[in-house]
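Protocol step 4 of 6: structure prediction from sequence.
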Amino acid sequence: MPEQFSWVDQALVQQHFIDRCDARSAALYLFLVTVSDAQGLSYYGASTLARRLRLSDEEFARARQQLIDLELIAYRSPLYQVLALPGTVAAPRPAPRAQAISGSQPVSLATLLQQAQARRG
């Protein structure tokens, strides 16, 4: 098994986040964790996520808001970012080449959004 296989489920259970999520929110979280890049970012659109999870637009909006309220994800259209769970220690990772910043500092969601908007013109 990969070294990182169980970090998500352990923190969700040990810190009782899973107890505060309904099944729809947990499904959305699992999907986002699965498809996100090394910085926790996903570009899946709301309609695609809702369809893949078989949720109505209203159910999807509630699930997303619950994850935001629990500070498990950040959302600013069109990006989702899975956030580090409190008390978890992430191994340092090099910044992706396209997003590299001098000194290899972490890149904020706001910075990534600005870069994405700048590329779109």
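Step 5 (inspection) to follow. The CA atoms of residues 41 and 117 lie 15 Å apart.
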